[in-house]
TrEMBL record:
Superkingdom of origin: Bacteria
Membrane-spanning residues: 7-26, 32-51
Keywords: Membrane, Transmembrane, Transmembrane helix
Protein name: Uncharacterized protein DUF4229
Pfam family of the protein (one): DUF4229
Protein backbone atom coordinates (compact mmCIF):
# COMPACT_ATOMS: atom_id res chain seq x y z
CA UNK A 1 0.00 0.00 0.00
CA UNK A 2 3.05 2.26 0.24
CA UNK A 3 3.05 2.65 -3.55
CA UNK A 4 -0.52 3.95 -3.44
CA UNK A 5 0.39 6.53 -0.80
CA UNK A 6 3.46 7.66 -2.75
CA UNK A 7 1.42 8.02 -5.96
CA UNK A 8 -1.29 10.01 -4.18
CA UNK A 9 1.24 12.34 -2.57
CA UNK A 10 3.01 12.88 -5.90
CA UNK A 11 -0.31 13.76 -7.54
CA UNK A 12 -0.98 16.26 -4.76
CA UNK A 13 2.45 17.80 -5.33
CA UNK A 14 1.76 18.12 -9.06
CA UNK A 15 -1.61 19.75 -8.31
CA UNK A 16 -0.04 22.16 -5.81
CA UNK A 17 2.65 23.11 -8.32
CA UNK A 18 0.07 23.74 -11.04
CA UNK A 19 -2.08 25.74 -8.65
CA UNK A 20 0.89 27.82 -7.56
CA UNK A 21 2.01 28.62 -11.10
CA UNK A 22 -1.52 29.46 -12.23
CA UNK A 23 -2.08 31.61 -9.14
CA UNK A 24 1.09 33.56 -9.80
CA UNK A 25 0.12 34.07 -13.43
CA UNK A 26 -3.62 34.70 -13.14
CA UNK A 27 -4.33 35.22 -9.43
CA UNK A 28 -5.36 38.83 -9.77
CA UNK A 29 -7.68 38.15 -12.72
CA UNK A 30 -9.78 35.14 -11.70
CA UNK A 31 -11.08 33.54 -8.51
CA UNK A 32 -9.35 30.79 -6.58
CA UNK A 33 -12.02 28.29 -7.64
CA UNK A 34 -11.32 28.90 -11.31
CA UNK A 35 -7.60 28.50 -10.70
CA UNK A 36 -8.24 25.29 -8.76
CA UNK A 37 -10.32 23.86 -11.62
CA UNK A 38 -7.67 24.73 -14.18
CA UNK A 39 -4.99 23.29 -11.92
CA UNK A 40 -7.03 20.10 -11.63
CA UNK A 41 -7.21 19.79 -15.41
CA UNK A 42 -3.53 20.49 -15.93
CA UNK A 43 -2.39 18.25 -13.08
CA UNK A 44 -4.47 15.35 -14.41
CA UNK A 45 -2.71 15.49 -17.75
CA UNK A 46 0.71 15.99 -16.21
CA UNK A 47 0.15 13.10 -13.82
CA UNK A 48 -0.63 10.80 -16.74
CA UNK A 49 2.60 11.84 -18.43
CA UNK A 50 4.97 12.19 -15.50
CA UNK A 51 3.70 9.57 -13.04
CA UNK A 52 2.99 6.68 -15.40
CA UNK A 53 5.30 4.21 -13.62
CA UNK A 54 4.06 5.09 -10.14
CA UNK A 55 0.46 4.85 -11.34
CA UNK A 56 1.07 1.39 -12.77
CA UNK A 57 2.61 0.24 -9.48
CA UNK A 58 -0.33 1.65 -7.51
CA UNK A 59 -2.72 -0.13 -9.88
CA UNK A 60 -0.96 -3.44 -9.32
CA UNK A 61 -1.26 -2.95 -5.56
CA UNK A 62 -5.00 -2.23 -5.86
CA UNK A 63 -5.57 -5.26 -8.09
CA UNK A 64 -3.75 -7.47 -5.59
CA UNK A 65 -5.77 -6.09 -2.69
CA UNK A 66 -9.03 -6.60 -4.59
CA UNK A 67 -8.05 -10.18 -5.41
CA UNK A 68 -7.31 -10.87 -1.75
CA UNK A 69 -10.70 -9.48 -0.68
CA UNK A 70 -12.43 -11.46 -3.41
CA UNK A 71 -10.66 -14.60 -2.21
CA UNK A 72 -11.79 -14.04 1.37
CA UNK A 73 -15.37 -13.48 0.23
CA UNK A 74 -15.33 -16.65 -1.88
CA UNK A 75 -13.85 -18.66 1.03
CA UNK A 76 -16.53 -17.36 3.38
CA UNK A 77 -19.25 -18.22 0.85
CA UNK A 78 -17.88 -21.76 0.41
CA UNK A 79 -17.74 -22.22 4.18
CA UNK A 80 -21.31 -20.97 4.50
CA UNK A 81 -22.47 -23.33 1.73
CA UNK A 82 -20.97 -26.33 3.56
CA UNK A 83 -22.82 -25.46 6.75
Amino acid sequence: MRQLLVYTLLRLVVFAACFGVLYLLFGSYVTGWAIALLALLFSSGLSLLLLRRQGAEAGRVLVGAAAAVRGRIDAAARKEDVD
